[in-house]
């Protein structure tokens, strides 16, 4: 009897482990640090299609997976705008991408994205990952989820993955500005520390 219970327990553990490593709830095969990022072509809220190759003079990018309705994303909206205004002129523009499926989450359709971008006066592209492929290539699981890319030898390499700062809910209590520190390190040819932090937000609905 004890042997049977042990076998059942081991079987359940193997099943759970298989699901975890298959990527349920997280992407096992997303980009890691120093991976080269493939270019993509996504529709901007302006109606034009945008690719990373459209910015040949960029030193890199601050890629942010975000959305219209997640309270964590909305709490970081002003911070995302501030990052673009501070670093676009220094060669690191923000590229925002909405990975959510509007059939699974109301308020995430393209028209709602257009309204949001207009009402908040977005200074950066806000792209629609309609086929939900780009976010999975990156391995994004949350909104917001940030990837900082740096151009090296004609490739865009991942140099930071994680949160914007250490207070996703309240900008007034921020003590560590992860993204700002990472971009400043790259501008000064220094190593990014920390290079990975935990992204806190709503799970991607796709």
UniProtKB/TrEMBL annotation:
Leader sequence segment: 1-22
Record keywords: Signal
Signal keyword on record: yes
InterPro entries, sorted: AhpC/TSA, PRX-like1, Thioredoxin-like_sf, Thioredoxin_domain
Entry superkingdom: Bacteria
Annotated CDD domains: PRX_like1 (cd02969)
Matching Gene3D superfamilies: Glutaredoxin
Molecular function GO terms recorded: antioxidant activity; oxidoreductase activity
Residue span(s) of domain Thioredoxin: 31-184
Pfam families noted in UniProt: AhpC-TSA (PF00578)
Protein name (record): AhpC/TSA family protein
Organism ancestry: Bacteria, Pseudomonadati, Bacteroidota, Flavobacteriia, Flavobacteriales
């Amino acid at each position: 009897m004890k042997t049977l219970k042990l076998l059942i327990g081991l079987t359940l553990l193997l099943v759970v482990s298989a699901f975890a490593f298959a990527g349920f709830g997280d992407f096992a095969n997303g980009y890691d640090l120093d991976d080269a990022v493939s270019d993509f072509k996504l529709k901007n809220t302006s109606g034009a299609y945008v690719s990373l190759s459209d910015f040949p003079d960029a030193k890199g990018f601050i890629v942010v997976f975000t959305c219209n309705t997640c309270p964590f994303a909305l709490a970081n909206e002003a911070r995302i705008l501030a990052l673009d205004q501070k670093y676009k002129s220094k060669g690191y523009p923000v590229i925002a991408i909405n990975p959510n499926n509007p059939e699974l989450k109301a308020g995430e359709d393209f028209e709602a994205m257009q309204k949001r971008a207009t009402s908040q006066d977005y200074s950066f592209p806000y792209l629609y990952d309609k086929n939900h492929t780009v976010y999975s290539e990156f391995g994004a699981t949350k909104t917001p989820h940030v990837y900082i890319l740096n151009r090296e030898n004609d490739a865009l390499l991942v140099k930071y993955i994680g949160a914007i700062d250490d207070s996703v809910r309240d900008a007034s209590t921020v003590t560590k500005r992860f993204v700002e520190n990472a971009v400043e390190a790259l501008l000064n040819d220094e190593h990014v520390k920390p290079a990975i932090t935990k992204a806190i937000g709503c799970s991607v609905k796709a």
